[in-house]
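Format notes (please read before filing issues)

Several people have asked whether sequences and structure tokens are stored in separate files. They are not. Every record keeps both together, in the order shown below: the sequence lines, then the token lines. Line labels are part of the format and must not be stripped during preprocessing.
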Amino acid sequence: MAKSKKVNQFDLLKELKKHFGFNQFKGEQEEIIQSVLDGKDTFVIMPTGGGKSLCYQLPALVSEGIAIIVSPLIALMKNQVDLLRSYSDIENVAHFLNSSLNKGQIKKVREDLLGGKTKMLYVAPETLTKDENVDFYGN
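Then the structure lines:
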């Protein structure tokens, strides 16, 4: 993530409601999110259904730049992107980049990234390290 910013509790709750429709945080989510926004390295272990995704998604949505999320599971990437798009008014708020995409789809993802439409990019580990993608990320 490019720049983090300090968001007070009221603003975080407002952003939570705006982007996800929730009125309150679950467990330690708020503390974790604030730690991420403060630019601190943050290691989180939560059970399935504990709300881990929100801990990086909300900071990505309220911060400048694009968050790159590395995930080895193509189905999980698609699920996360579909869910984010269902919450957001911005159709291309999130994309995934992996071996399931054809060249035309990859071109569209790159155009949206360069156009500033995308806040989160889910990538597979092998996709992240391809020379052509490393060169693209450098731009």
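For reference, the curators noted about this record: The chain has a mean pLDDT of 88. The beta strands are 67-70, 94-97, 120-123.
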